Every structure is written in structure tokens, then in C-alpha cells.
Amino acid sequence: MDSLLMLIPIALFLGLVGLGTFLWALKSGQFEDLDGAANRILFEEDDMAPPPPSETDRAEAPEGRHKKG
Length: 69
Prior knowledge:
The protein is an all-alpha fold and 69 residues long. The chain is 57% helix and 0% strand.
């Protein structure tokens, strides 16, 4: 009987911790995009084309590239 007096509050405390963690995850947006992770795992990053260079990248690139030969 003494063990029940200790186990019931522990079980209630752990239940409240779990509920609090679930509510925190719900408010922080953890469940917003459920299909995104499932789709991202199917495609490797190497398969996707790199983004086109922006105007700032073109301005920084050296223009005097000469081919040897």
C-alpha cells in the first residue's frame, strides 16, 4: 500500500511532463509540415540542380579567365 502512495504521484507527474512536452511541441510548430520530411528523404541533395548564380556572384567572379593552349 505504501508503494501505491509513492507510485501514483510519480505517474501523475510523468503524465503532466509528457502533456507539457506535447503542448510545447504543438505551439512551436513541430507538426506543421508532416509530409515535408517524408518527401525530403526520397531525394538526395546531389540530384537537385544547384541554384543559378546571383548578380553578386557574377560581379565577384574573375572576368579574365584564359584557357591555356
